[in-house]
Amino acid sequence: MSGEQKAKAKGEQARGKLKETAGRAVGNERLTAEGRAEKAKGDARQAKEKIKDTLKD
Questions:
Q1: 20-48: b or e for each residue (b if 16 or more CB lie within 10 Å)?
Q2: How far apart are alpha carbons 55 and 35 in whole angstroms?
Q3: Contact status, residue 23 vs residue 34, Cβ threshold 8 Å
Q4: pLDDT in tens, 4-33
Q5: Is residue 27 left, alpha or beta, with left meaning phi > 0 and alpha meaning psi from -120 to 50?
Q6: Which residues touch 9 (CB under 8 Å, ≥6 apart)?
Q7: What share of the chain is helix, strand, coil (3-state, %, to 5)?
Q8: Sign of CA pseudo-dihedral 16, 33, 40, 8
Q9: For 27, which DSSP code?
Q10: Which pTM was predicted?
């Protein structure tokens, strides 16, 4: 996995988790949903990079 893409995926996952947690804390469903979506985007990016690495070997 390229270092840049790995960092981007981890950043998206962290921001998503933070937004989701903050949304739950204040009872904001929209913020919670945004956090879940951003976290899922990071998970997908990470999975894509892992597949690319596997196929490269």
A1: beebeeeeeeebbebbeebbebbeebbee
A2: 30
A3: yes
A4: 888 999 999 999 999 999 999 999 999 999
A5: left
A6: 42, 43, 45, 46, 49
A7: 90, 0, 10
A8: negative
A9: T
A10: 0.82
